[in-house]
Amino acid sequence: MRLLRRLRIWLQRDRFESELAEELAHHRELVEKEQVEAGLSPDEAKRAAARQFGNATTASESARSIWVWDSLDNILQDIRYAWRGLARNPSLVALACLSLALSTGFGTTLFSIVNAVILQPITASQPESLVRFWVGPSNRISWLNYKDICEDTPGVACAGYRMEEASWQEKDEPLRVQVQAVTANYFELLGVQAAQGRLFDARMLKESPDTVVVTHAFWQRRLEGDPAVIGRKIILSGNPYIITAVLPQGFRSLFGMGISPALYVPVGSALRPLSEDRSRTQYELLGRLQPGDENPVSFRSRIQARGQYLEQTYPATNREMSRVQTWPMSRFGLLMSAQGEQKMMQGLLIFAGMLLIFILLLAAVACMNVAGLLIARALSRQREIAIRLSLGCSRWRLTRLLFAESFLLALLGVSAGAALSVWLARALVATPLPFPVPLELEIPIDGYLLVYLSCVTAFSTIVAGVAPAIQGWRINGIGESIRTHRPVGFRRFPARAILTTSQVALSTVLLVATMLFLRSLWASTQVNPGFEMDRVLTVEMNLQSTQVTAEEVDQQQRAILTRLRGLPQVSAVSAADIVPLSMNSNVTSLEVDSGSAEQPARAKVNNNYILPDYFRVMGIRRISGRDFEEQDQGKSEKYAIVNEAFARRLFPDGTTLGKRIRRPRPEVEQQEAWAEIIGVVADSRYLTLGEDPLPLVYWPAGPSVRPLTIHVRTESDVAALTKQVRDVVDGGRARVQPLRSVMAIALFPAQAAAVLLASLGVIAWALTIAGLYGVVGYSVTRRIPEIGVRMALGASPGRILALVMREGLRIVAIGLAIGLAAAAAGTPVLSMLLSGVNPRDLVSFSVPAIALLLTAAAAAYGPARRGTRVAPTQALRAE
Amino acid sequence: MGSIELNNHELPAGSVDLLALKALLSGPRHGYGIAQRIRELSGDVLALGESSLYTSLQRLLLNGWVTAEWGASENNRRARYYTLTAEGRKHLEVQTEEFGFVLSAIQRVLGSA
What we know:
The complex is a heterodimer of chains A (about 900) and B (about 110). Helices cover about 55% and strands about 15% of the residues of chain A. Chain A has about 900 residues and is of the alpha+beta class. In chain A, the strands form four sheets. In chain A, strands 1, 2, 3, 4, 5, 6, 7, 9, 10 and 11 form a ten-stranded mixed beta sheet that branches. In chain A, helix 13 runs parallel beside helix 25 and helix 15 (about 395-430) runs antiparallel to helix 16. Mean pLDDT of chain A is about 80; it is low at about 485-490 and about 665-670. By secondary structure, chain B is α+β, with helices and mostly antiparallel strands. Chain B has helices spanning about 15-25, 30-40, 50-65, 85-110, and strands at about 5, 30, 45-50, 65-70, 80-85. In chain B, helix 1 (about 15-25) crosses helix 3 and helix 1 (about 15-25) crosses helix 4 (about 85-110). Chain B is globular, with a radius of gyration of 15 Å.
């Protein structure tokens, strides 16, 4: 109630003032009248009333003070006053805002990316009750097994999904899009709602199976935000689909890390016809624990029982189905919860933390420019400040006034920066990623961002305001400052110089770290992946169609392989299921025959299915044993080739050839089908360039593993070969590209990080140089009298130049020394993110140091030259 | 003993508020009327300074102990009339009792030998 009354009076404060004045005047009149009645003359009465009444202003002020929050009023007054002062200095405001806008703009964009990639949880209701699970030895199961487990097991809710690629004709250029094929209950299981239209479910699919759900990003970017999007027909790899729904903006796919397929189609639609082959493992599984399942144990046991039944009913195709493994779904998506990636997650978090620190450092550098400008301003008005102090302005109030200025500047600069970053983020999202897979990155404008921006504003206010405030405290007596024109409290190493020194130190740290990352990136592109990247073309066939059987696909591919072998520039041709470093992987568990009756040893390995000649095409060295031969392919597969990492891990005694391992694929007819290791080849990178070589098993690709990616080896120019290969394979149905560009996706994170860091470093550097220029220029202006006297006494321009330059360079030298020491102390933390470069790399430390020194010298030279042109007479007049 | 000019900080806290509330007990009055009434009731001893009177009135308004309304005064001018609210009456009762308690305590101290 009190608050409401206060507020009402505050809102009507003009009326309040006039009414109070009227009331007081009336009162005074009545007092006068009383005096006249008591026998005084009107004049005397007036004087007596005035005497009795006292100070009318004091009365009204003390009456008013009951209503207002004193501090609020004063703060508003401070801000108004600061605003007026700044408005008279448009160039200062412009400079300060530019500094802050640049740093905030880039910092915020970086933060948004970190936010989009790491901080965004997946879109699902109660993600904590979601689980990933395997039934049997593989991460995938066949359609029939899926149906038996997810649709017919009481008390179990689960859905299946798999990634597909499709080509989508957009104008002339066909575009590859990532499509997730999901079971009918997928969206319901996740608990996701459509922004427009209706998400498909089992009932809808019965009527029209070929429906597609598009993401907000795809709708906006590829369909140009078509308002009539629902019901629109799009052609995916030659199959017509009807759009039934658009997902909400900010929808986060199951993958996490800001990555999302563009489209969702139902399993069983034209792109992914249902396979009645129980051995074709296709779908990954996602389950939801039911209310009451405190932990996945009961969930697991229900599925185990079901799996056991399926194993017994279909022994030919279902092996080990009673073995069920579950993993909790990470709030941040599959990419974070995949096994063995705890380390990756940790690395990402360190990287994100480091980026945030860098952003903060950059913001600090920018704030110091603002602080420098404010100090210069405070110095130029210190007489005014001294007068305020002597008139009774408290130091606390003075500090508040100075902070009001930095707050206003921070607010303006950060707002401009936020606008800049929105623009940057838009541009960034619209930029096509440098690899052919159009994964959609969403950069949201959300609550996290607003919190971040307020923090930046507060941070900027404090960092930019604290130095001027200290400067303000130093001003003591009015006498001192009125007597002299010289700024008071100016030490030999003034506040601005200290600021610039810290700026130099901070940007040294930033630049060293940036250099380290650039060097690391360079080193990583130089890493030998263990295979030849520049002499290999890959051909991906798009053979998925309803009518074609695996045998027919196999026939087609064989025909193409034969034709490719006929090309004169081609030296070898082979094919494989998985292209290394393309983000595809096939991870399974494996049994190793121990040679006795005891339980076979188990291991988790990466797999690849290949045709003969693969190692020759890829340039992977054979260590021992033999390659697959044509006759190994057709028969039931009983051979395997492993890499050295596998041999080291599982057979440390060194005898690998002839050992037997059991293949995880369930379609092997006999339970006892052991495969013999017939060869060992050199290690090569499989998932990422930075990884330690992983155990990898190569299997002969039987006809059921189709389509394969064809690999073509040439000893001449890859680019020239591309066209010829396209002609051979009928370019419309296949994608032909050099192996190196397939790997672009593996290099992308490091490249993106390098570009981001480099831009941070460059901005910090530019701001620092600008700050230094300002400081040296200011110091020249301040020292004009001194320079004049020196010149009059016969100092040469060279001496003057040296004098001024020395001051600028001293700042840089001290800053550099501090910065290099800090960087040397801090960079070992980054070693986890750096590959192929020592965290105390000499080049990374010396290049920024030299660059800073040189540019700083150039920045100091300008004002220093101006110093040498000071005429002695002018200098004396200035005194 | 002549009249005493009353100022806030020379009296126990809130005593001007109490005097003003007491003056309003007999009906709505404007500011001058309140000052008059207090002087009258105190036998011409307590003369309320305008500064403390109007400051006190704002406080009473803020706390909801009185309401204010514009009306015509005896010399046909616009004047703001203050009326005691139920809350104000209650506050007056409670505070009067407390004030008396404090006052008698002070007198006991001063009267003791």
